[in-house]
Amino acid sequence: KRRRFELSMPTPSRTSMLRMSVLPDSGLRVKHEDFKGAVSSLTEETFDSLNSIWTEAGYEEIECQGLLGDILTKFKALCAAELSAEQQILDHAKQQVVVKVEEYGLLCEKLGRPCGQEEDFGTNFADRLAELEKKIYDIEVEINERSGQIAAKADEISTLLSSLGEEGPPEFEGSDLSDARIESMTAYCTELEGGRALRVKEMREVAEDCLKAFQELMVPQEGVDGLPQFVMYSDLDQAVLSLKPDVEFPFLHKDEFQRLMERAKTLTEEKERRREELSSNGAEIARMWTQLRVSTADRTAFQQSINMNLSMETLNKGREELSRLKALRLASLATVIASIRDEIAAYWDELGVTSQEQRESEFPMFTAEVKSLPDSSVEDHELFCVSLKEKVDLLRPILSKIARREAIIKERVQLEHIMMDPERLRARGPKAREDRKREEEMSRRVKGLEKYTKELLHQIELWEEQSGAPFLYTGERYVDRVNAQEEEYADTKNTLRNSRRKKDGKPEGNASTKIVAKRFSSTLPASNPSHSTPLLKKSSSTIQSTPSSIPKKATGSSSIKKTPGSKIPLKENHTGAENVPKQLLRSSSSASAESTGTEVTSKTEIKERGSSATVERQLSETF
Fold first, then answer.
1. What is the pLDDT of residue 541?
2. Neighbours of 24 (CB within 10 A)
3. N or C: lower Cβ tally within 10 Å for the chain?
4. Following DSSP, what letter does each residue of 260-305 receive, concatenated?
């Protein structure tokens, strides 16, 4: 152990201590219990030998005492030197133990472990020093291994963060080499591995979407030059085109992932843009084919020359065909404009716009000479035709009913002329039966005219309330046109009746038998109050009669109240923003005529129309 202490001491201390040794190491080993006896025996032997020598030499007593004193002094010096050397070794051992404990504590602190007390390493300093040296060696080996593990984890984390483009690692728990730190780094590395696997999956999904879009856009056949921003995304495009099932996508950085997402978006937008262009160009080509009367053979040849895909070849062929048709359209401008004008005129006919002045006010270019029109006039005609078609489609339910009513109005006048000939009832033969059947059908339609007119005017009234504008037909408000038609029909009936009576040599009908026009009304004012027809107007053909000249069945009383001569005031509302009255007061004579659906006629006059019972029945049904 003493040798171990000496070896553990610094070189200068050990050298000085060896210099202080009087005798070299003899290799003799003496037990503790034999040392005192050996020293006593050696002392006695030495004293006896010296005493014998000094006696034989004749030394005086005082000289012998002096020599014994010198020998004792040297022996004391030797013992003191040995004690000092051993004490230095002990002190150095204590200092080494303290240093080793501190060193071990620092190493344990690095690993995040408790180091323990000094007494925990042995009962003496030699055992403590030996145990500390062993533990320090073991923990240094572990620290070296732990440092390698942490460095490897740090490199792995750095590589993952760099590949994913994420920010630097967080502050890990624990000391530099602690178990908690390595566990924290391992967990974070596992988390990054999961994020990387998810990023690989997401990148592959987006890349496959891009590859599918490339295939739809025919990029493998035509290249990426026709794509938008192909220079900016050239690296990603090449990676997508070289994508294989068992090969990982080469880009995982978050910026690259964002770029790939943007590329997928641009490809989707490009597909939609090409689809829209193909659709619009196809519709325009089909429309211009129809306008320019392109032959079926030319159409078939063009359709067979293109592929139904989203390639630039297909788009360019469509553009070329459209350019060719536009050039052809400009060459045949007059024919095209005439065709469009025919469509416009047909729509105008449906809307009842028949006057030339009204048509010119709506579309001044309609009557202009074609040679004076610019090239853009075709588009102007087409735009107006489209807007007119939309208007007709919107009003078609009402317009179809108006067309039917106008046809019945004409039949009503025709029927009135037919009824003035009583000889038709005596006719026989196939033609007479056909005429009679036609007359009955016309009579059936005419009888339902009033109900049909009320339904139509109600529908027009709803439309006026919703749109806030009057419904015009042939340049006038339709309710005014209906009232004018009723007045015209009443005048026609009166004229035909008087003409028949004059032909039969009878006097003309008086006021009691004069036909009065039926009045219809609406709740909205006319479009222009300065020239609009009043909804209720005092007519010169108002019934004037005495109680004796009108049957009670027809009037419902012995006297008739006079028709009010003044209008019922209405609110001026051209926008439909305010509420307007839904019903208007009518004269008692007009209300009686509308409720019965027939006109007032005397029985004597009916009998004068013919002697036959059939004629009388027919005239009764008519009037």
1. 32
2. 7
3. N
4. HHHHHHHHHHHHHHHHHHHHHHHHHHHHHHHHHT--HHHHHHHHHH
Radius of gyration of the chain (CA): 63
Q: For residue 503, give the amino acid letter.
A: K
- CA neighbours closer than 13 Å in the CB half-sphere of residue 4: 10
One-letter amino acid at 185 equals M
> Please, what sign has the CA dihedral across residues 389, 395, 397, 401?
negative
Question: Which residues, 6 or more positions from 191, have their beta carbon under 8 angstroms from its beta carbon?
Answer: none
Q: Can you give 488-526 as a three-state secondary structure string?
A: HHHHHHHHHHHHHHHHCCCCCCCHHHCCCCCCCCCCCCC
Q: What is the pLDDT of residues 421-467, one digit of tens each?
A: 777 777 788 888 888 888 888 888 888 888 888 888 888 888 888 77
Backbone angles phi, psi at 172, to 5 degrees: -80, 155
| pLDDT value for 430 | 85
SS3 of 464-485: the string is HHHHCCCCEECCEEHHHHHHHH
Give the whole-angstrom CA distance, residue 62 versus residue 54: 11
Measured N-to-C along each axis, helices 254-292 and 333-351 cross at an angle, to the nearest 10 degrees, of 90
234-241 and 179-216 helices cross at what angle (nearest 10)? Answer: 80
Write phi, then psi, for 32 (nearest 5 degrees): -60, -45
Task: Find where tokens 């509308």 sit.
Answer: 594
Contact 441, 518 (CB under 8 A): no
Phi, psi of 477 (to 5 degrees): -70, 135
Measured CA to CA, the distance from residue 517 to residue 533 in angstroms comes to 15
Q: Rounded to whole angstroms, how far apart are CA atoms 525 and 535?
A: 8
**Burial grade of 80 (CB within 10 A; 0-12, 13-18, 19 or more):** exposed
117: confidence class by pLDDT, cuts 50, 70, 90 = low
Considering only CA atoms, which of 359, 524, 321, 488 is closest in space to residue 416?
488
Q: How confident is the model at residue 617 (pLDDT cuts 50, 70, 90)?
A: very low
Instruction: Give residue 367's identity as a one-letter amino acid code.
Output: T
- 8 A C-beta contact, residue 85 and residue 17: yes
476 beta partners: 473
Phi, psi dihedrals of residue 539, rounded to the nearest 5°: -95, 150
Asked if 177 and 184 touch (Cβ cutoff 8 Å), the reply is no
Number of residues written out for the chain: 623
- What is the model's pLDDT at position 516? 56
Contact 579, 391 (CB under 8 A): no
CA–CA dist 432, 437 (Å, integer): 9
Q: Which residues pair with 473 in a beta bridge?
A: 476
Instruction: Estimate to the nearest angstrom the gap between the alpha carbon of 344 and the chain centroid.
Output: 39
Which residues does residue 472 pair with via DSSP β-bridges, in sequence order?
Answer: 477
What distance in Å separates the CA atoms of residue 623 and residue 620, rounded to the nearest whole number?
A: 5
- Tokens standing for residue 310: 């989203």
- Quick one: which of 82, 88, 73, 91 has its CA closest to 20? 82
Any idea what DSSP says for residue 233? T
Residue 297: other Cβ atoms inside 10 A:
8
Lowest mean pLDDT among 37-46, 114-123, 166-175, 591-600: 591-600
Residue 590 in contact with residue 519, Cβ under 8 Å? yes
